[in-house]
Amino acid sequence: MPDPVIDPARVQFGVGQAVPRQEDPILLRGQGRYTDDLALPGQARCVMVRSPYAHGLIRGIATETAREMPGVLGIFTGADVAAYGGLKAGFLFNNRDGTPINNVARPVLPQDKVRFVGDPVAFVVAETLAQAKDAAEMVELDIEPLDAVTEPAAALAPGAPLVFDSVPANTVLDFHFGDTEKVAAAFAAAAHRVSLEIRNSRVVVCPMEPRSAMGEFDPASGRYTLHAQTQGVFGVRNQIAGILNVPKEQLRVLTGNVGGSFGMKYGPFPEYVCVLHAAKVLGRPVKWTDERTGAFLSDPHGRDNDVTAELALDAEGRFLAVRLTALSNMGAYLTTAAPAMSTGNFARNVQSNYATPLIEVATRCVLTNVTPIGAYRGAGRPEGNYFMERLIEAASLETGIPAAELRRRNHVRPDQLPCEMASGSVYDSGEYSAVLAQAMAEADWDGFEARKADSARRGLLRGRGLGNFLECTGAPMQEMGGIRFNEDGTVTIVTGTLDFGQGHWTAFAQVLHQQLGVPFDRIRLVQGDSDQLIAGAGTGGSKSLMASGAAIIEASELVVEKGKAAAAHVLEAAAVDIEFAAGRFSIAGTDRGVGIMELAETLRRAPDLPADIPRTLDVSHVFDQAPMAYPNGCHVAEVEIDPETGHVQVVRYHAVNDFGVVVNPLLVRGQAHGGIAQGIGQAIMEHVVYSPEGQLLSGSFTDYALPRASDLPSFGLGSHPVPASTNPLGAKGCGEAGCAGSLPAVMNAILDALGAYGITHIDMPAQPETVWAAIQAARGARDKARHS
After folding, report:
1. Which residues pair with 609 in a beta bridge?
2. Of 100, 260, 300, 780, whose CB count within 10 A is highest?
3. Domain final residue, candidates 623, 657, 678
4. Sign of the C-alpha dihedral, residues 258, 259, 264, 268?
């Protein structure tokens, strides 16, 4: 039966439609497959033994008693895995003097000393999880404690403990961007200068699904298989194969459903190498799943920077230069993305959407005896925007120019685009002042004073804050766009990004449906099998739709080329006379044609085809790369503060975003909601606290607060899309933008409310004790001044 002709104007599942996520019914029925759901025949269980000290010399690890316990199959220490390579950073930068970063390797298990509480030093494999836990408790660690250092400023001090003896002053990178002399001259000539000391607080990532891994080894082929959560199996396969010292083809990485990552699961981890090693030695699958306590200690944390931010302005409030001088806490080891966040991403994103002619960023990346830092939703992009937005509020107080007007006055205008910025980026599209105006209107900016008066009648302070943002997404790198027409009548997309909650299956299917007219409900997606990929840069930097979407579009064009040749044979016409539209190949000027699905089936069943006719419509294509895109927007938050307790409540929230072409508005809203919630969490409650000895004091949900539904208002979301010209879809990326807008919007609102007491700056998180203490100090200063 021929395929029906699809009217593009009435496509239900095409680009721009709010199609529900296809995976939701599967997940809601409990049919998802997460790593811990795996149960392979003969599998053993693994438990890690972690250091209780932040810093110490390993004098010995006694395993004799533990080895004799029931069910124990093996206990492994650093000596057993010493032949493997180390884990290193994957994003590399040079020091200001041109020398490369000190990319010190993290051992799979250390033999010399431990470097943070939670550092894995051994692992136990047993028949059952309970047996492995019991035996792990009997492994005796002889560790000679050393002085620890938890803050980068202290780590730089003369005589400070060295995390690695090979890293002088604990500094792995002295990064510099910009022209120091020109920036200094701009500040010297400025009519106005503002400076803020800003703490960008450390957060725990807290995905719903803790890390987990299953290792297998086939002695016949010498091949490893790793089941683990990743943000891209292709890259993780390449990295772990390098650590194992085996060819990439000898490792297969499989990822099923992933219960959240936010950047944290981007690269390899020691535990993944451990289960692969044990599987080879023991000849059976070995499974490890972390628990929440271990996750708090050992999952990479996010953020953690101390920054001096400075802005120079002329007499009319035009920005002349912005300067960031930062100390970035790397923790005890370098993770895959660690050096990128506070260096290149600061430099690219502090520009925001303002025509600031000069930028200087100087960052020292410092090792300390705390949990390593990794990527966390935005990975330097929200931070860069946050610094600029806080500076603008300070500049408004300095100059007397309203903050909204300062933003408008310095926006890059549409008639200036495309425009090469001081950051090195080339902005291609955007209407930044229009977005600001729309956000203020939709948030009822002019009605604020009445709401403030109402709050005051209830004894509460009310403040409002703007969070303008523009972020530079990750540049789409090589990405696979495979399309397979299957025997069961389905069509499979194969690509190397990876869904860990974003809804890729639905969005990618919409793009393919739009391009080829393939029935939406017959489209399947493969992302999590490295054996099926020929390229894949993974998911990160809000680039997945731009990368995989472009790959799907280009692959679809190749399908059409093959289809025209095949349809010409089937319809007995010349290939030049074949047209394709709405899922159908037809002879120009006639009503004779064949649908794409029918053609795929015809080719599959054809017994003999001429040599020049394709046997299948399948393609395996690699999209090369594209420039980054520049999503932008404006968030408006309102808060109420109880001055007697310091409690902050976000009571109104509205955002207008320019995400370019929106493939699925429903998915975009979900991404915005999640990012805003995480930004609010960091702004007012999430707080990682270490003791001076390096013990994590906020190591559970008893001591570490995440935002609940009751902590969040309803979000108003508007859209002002201006298509990007940097990718075939015109999309700009939306996954991290919620954080980029919410951090400054909420903190600016808090400072606006506290302005009644003359308070001009506090750092995140604005927890009740912090806000209350600031109010009490301001009241005391006011009373003292009154009586002096």
Report:
1. none
2. 300
3. 623
4. negative
